[in-house]
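Weekly sync, protein design subgroup
Attendees: M.S., D.O., the rotation student, P.L. (late)

Item 1: inverse folding check
M.S. brought a backbone from last month's batch and wanted to see whether the design step gives back something sensible before we order anything. D.O. pointed out we never logged the input encoding, so this time it goes straight into the notes. Structure tokens as presented (141 positions):
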């Protein structure tokens, strides 16, 4: 039986997506997402705990993230967890755990950009949900 690797997060973007264009035309967007958890300590004080997640979006999803997502915006991210390793500048092996996004939905209304309020026409043109299209070699048939 195959395992399941599925992550669902709702949180706020910690920074604007940073997009890199790789050889072969593929694009990848990286950004951080903050999720908050609240609980009461022994004294009854409300405590907030923030967890930061590294998000990676590929290809068309990366381009849509670059175009529409901005720091502070609330989003829904669905994807899978992946840990990868790399060599740092001191030739030390480092590991990073990130969420590979399959779907991103904008929540909480449209953000007001630095240019001012979005026009109603522009607001209706921007999609609210983005999905990663599977590559041909990923299709089960």
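Designed sequence read out in the meeting:
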């Amino acid at each position: 039986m195959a395992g399941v690797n599925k992550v669902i997060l709702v949180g706020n973007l910690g920074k604007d997506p940073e997009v890199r264009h790789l050889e072969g035309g593929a694009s990848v967007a990286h950004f951080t997402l903050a999720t908050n958890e609240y609980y009461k300590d022994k004294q009854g004080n409300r405590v907030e705990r923030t967890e930061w997640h590294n998000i990676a979006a590929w290809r068309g999803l990366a381009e849509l993230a670059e175009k529409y997502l901005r720091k502070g915006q609330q989003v829904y991210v669905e994807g899978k967890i992946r840990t990868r390793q790399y060599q740092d500048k001191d030739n030390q092996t480092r590991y990073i755990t990130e969420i590979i996004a399959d779907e991103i939905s904008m929540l909480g209304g449209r953000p007001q950009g630095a240019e001012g309020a979005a026009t109603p026409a522009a607001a209706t043109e921007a999609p609210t949900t983005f999905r990663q299209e599977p590559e041909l070699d990923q299709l089960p048939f």
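Discussion: The two ends are 19 Å apart (CA to CA). The longest strand covers residues 27-40.
Action: P.L. to compare against the previous round before Friday.
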